[in-house]
Write a structure and sequence with these properties.
62% helix, single chain, mainly alpha, globular, 13 helices, 260 residues, binds protoporphyrin IX containing FE, Methane Monooxygenase Hydroxylase, Chain G, domain 1
Length: 260
């Protein structure tokens, strides 16, 4: 059969994937499903891009990394903006189908966790929300011990002349990135002598600001939609989500802003 728009993109299959559960049908449930599916597709793209960045960093390819961070930053801005659409759903409308979600929650988004782990925000405790048969579980397990974007950033900085503190290199594979003052001194030193690095550092900071913005906008949307109700995933809801607000993934880059 001749390749067409529809067959190449599997459009008919894609359009079968929205299955509202509310009876009688609640109009807004379609939006709720489509927006989550759209997020998951963008998460897939981000993971794909950051795998490329990991390789770019280790190859010392500054321009390739700059190019990709420009893209991931732009995707992140789009992800933040999309929350505006969901905010057109009123609390009453959401309540009409919320109990149909049972215990399903964004909490269980494997790709969101993968992205966190990939960036270096490794939270092994989040495995307690999945059992081994959960789709994507194995992928997430592998991601936990795969070197993060930050680990590859160290490779890049080393090639640019930075001395990477031994303890950063020895950090267990499943441990979260932690800020390091000696590394920060090295980044400031390189920043002064190699102006082309400035572009990369600004773009990494842009992306990081974007992911913090997403957390803020998500928690505000949650607050206006369900108030202080518990989450369908079983957490305290807004109170739980507030804990990861303002959490950067590239902590060293934020710690040195006053030194530029
Ligand atoms: C009306 C809309 C929404 C409500 C009321 C809502 C509510 C919540 C709540 C209460 C939690 C905390 C965990 C729990 O106990 O369930 C949570 C977590 C989460 N939600 Fe949403 N959410 C909404 C839309 C979205 C959308 C559109 C996404 C996009 C993928 C999303 C992704 C996530 C993620 C990734 C987490 C885990 C965050 C973390 O662990 O740091 N949520 N959500």
């Amino acid at each position: 059969m001749e390749l067409t728009y529809g067959t190449y993109l599997h459009i008919e299959r894609l359009l079968q994937l929205q299955e509202p559960r509310s009876e009688p049908a609640e109009h807004d449930e379609t939006l709720f499903i489509i927006i989550h599916q759209t997020y998951e597709l963008w998460f897939k793209q981000l993971i794909h891009e950051f795998d490329k960045v990991r390789a770019d960093f280790s190859a010392g390819d500054l321009y390739a990394a700059i190019h990709t961070f420009k893209r991931t930053r732009t995707i992140m801005k789009t992800l933040v903006q999309q929350l505006d659409i969901l905010e057109t759903m009123t609390p009453t409308s959401f309540s009409a189908f919320r109990d149909r979600l049972d215990t399903a929650s964004g909490f269980q988004s494997v790709q969101f966790r993968e992205l966190e782990f990939q960036l270096g925000y490794k939270r092994p405790e989040t495995f307690s929300f999945y059992d081994e048969s959960y789709p994507g579980y194995e992928r997430l397990r592998r991601r936990l011990t795969t070197r993060s974007v930050v680990d590859h950033f160290y490779d890049f900085l080393e090639q640019r002349g930075a001395e990477i503190p031994e303890e950063l290199r020895k950090r267990p594979a499943d441990a979260a990135t932690a800020p390091s003052e000696p590394l920060q001194d090295e980044i400031v030193r390189l920043h002064e002598s190699q102006p082309d690095l400035v572009i990369l550092i600004e773009l990494m900071t842009d992306f990081d600001e974007g992911q913090q913005e997403w957390r803020y906008r998500h928690v505000k949307m949650v607050e206006r939609t369900i108030g202080n109700k518990r989450g369908t995933g079983g957490s305290l809801g807004v109170e739980f989500l507030r804990k990861s607000l303002f959490k950067p993934v590239f902590e060293d880059l934020w710690a040195i802003r006053h030194r530029f």
